[in-house]
Structure formats: C-alpha cells, structure tokens
C-alpha cells in the first residue's frame, strides 16, 4: 500500500525518468491527492519554472502501480511549447491594499462613464445584471450582437481595473432568443454567457462557478412572468 504523498511522488518521478527522460529537467510534480471516488492517487505533472502550469497527470493505484497517465508525447509537446512561453513566474498585482477612497454612495449614470471616474482598486465586489442584448427587442439599442459584446468588453475591462486583486465579479447573463421573422425562417438562440466568459477570461478574470437561477413554474418569461410579477402579493419571492 502507498500511504504517503512522498511515496507517490517517488513512483511518479521514476515513471517520468523512464518515459520523459529528455524533458525531465523541465517537468516537476504538484501535490498528489487521493481521489476517493476511484481510490487512486492523482499526481499533477507541472512545468518546473511555473508550477501552476498543469501539463499532465499520473494516476497511481493504492498498490503503487502507475494505472494511467496523460500520454508522454503530449506531456513532452506541452512542456516544449511552454518552456519558452512561461519563462517568468505568473505575475499578480501585489500592491498594498488601501481602503476605497469613495464612501458608500448610490450613483446613477452610464456604467462606462461612472467606471472611468473610479480610481483603480476601489471596489471589493462587483455584481451586475447588464442588458441581455435583445431580451426586450423593442428597446434593444445595439446595432448588432457584436456591438453589444464590444460594449460589455469595455465595461468588463474597466471593472477589472477598478476591482482589487482577488475580488469577485458576479455577472448575471442568459442566452436570448432572436425570434423568427416568418414561417420559412428559424429563430436563433444566442449563447451570451459563453461569449461573456471569453471576454472575462481575456480581461484577466478566472472562472469560479456558474449559478443557475431556476425559476419556479409560472415564472417563465413566455408564461406571462411580467403580468404575474405585477399581480403577485410577494413578487420578490423568487
Ligand atoms: C437586465 S436589466 C437589470 C435590471 C436590474 N437588475 C434591476 O433590478 O434594475 C439591465 C439594466 O441595465 C441598464 N443599462 C443599460 N445600459 C446601461 C449602461 N450603459 N449603464 C448603466 N446601466 C445600463 C438598463 O436600463 C436596465 O435597467
């Protein structure tokens, strides 16, 4: 039985020497952890000069056998590609944190303009529910979907600057429907959250989780949610 991370590391290191001898100086091991769903150890294989950079994984059985792994050729290709790309350790903004110079305040205005006026590192949390492109087609102000994404990109990039390092940004978005214009055409579903994720990742945010807002029966848009909302005695219960 292998009982310690140290033993597991030793077994994996030996496997690396057998299968990846030519790149072994560029490859090291992350923290071995037990996966109790399958009763195996999982050992991350990382770049030596950027240990947060995962390039493979080895699966070690409790008896010390290498049960499975990322293909050695793939680990080798990833190692060679990233050796040059990731030469400096991942950089983080590490300035000292000063309390926000703005007091609690309600500001009414265009998000972009208001954000422009806030100094960097002033926000500790951002929660926003931006327009969903054409969710209300009659009041959609965007020329097309690309213009909508460009608008979001501008706001998201500015939010990244205004938020302090390590803080959360929660954004409420949903796919929307572009209705068909005739019986011979089809409606189209636009996956806004997927495109927003791309924008957020390129602005430097790390995805943490998606929270699905499940509305109870009767609350759906096309079931007259608006009317129900107005008539309900407890409209905010969901
Ligand atoms: C999906 S709704 C969210 C509503 C919000 N959760 C609320 O309870 O009022 C989007 C809101 O964004 C506002 N909005 C649209 N463009 C904006 C902009 N450039 N700056 C600030 N707010 C904007 C719209 O007026 C609308 O109220």
UniProtKB/TrEMBL annotation:
GO biological process: DNA restriction-modification system; methylation
Catalytic activity: a 2'-deoxycytidine in DNA + S-adenosyl-L-methionine = an N(4)-methyl-2'-deoxycytidine in DNA + S-adenosyl-L-homocysteine + H(+)
Keyword Methyltransferase: yes
EC annotation from Swiss-Prot or TrEMBL: 2.1.1.113
InterPro entries attached to this UniProt entry: DNA_methylase_N4/N6, MeTrfase_CN4_CS, SAM-dependent_MTases_sf
Keywords per UniProt: DNA-binding, Methyltransferase, Restriction system, S-adenosyl-L-methionine, Transferase
Molecular function per GO: DNA binding; N-methyltransferase activity; site-specific DNA-methyltransferase (cytosine-N4-specific) activity
Classification via Gene3D superfamilies: Vaccinia Virus protein VP39
Domain DNA methylase N-4/N-6: 124-230
Enzyme class, spelled out: transferase
Family named by the database record: Belongs to the N(4)/N(6)-methyltransferase family. N(4) subfamily.
Protein's name according to its UniProt entry: site-specific DNA-methyltransferase (cytosine-N(4)-specific)
Biological source species: Candidatus Hakubella thermalkaliphila
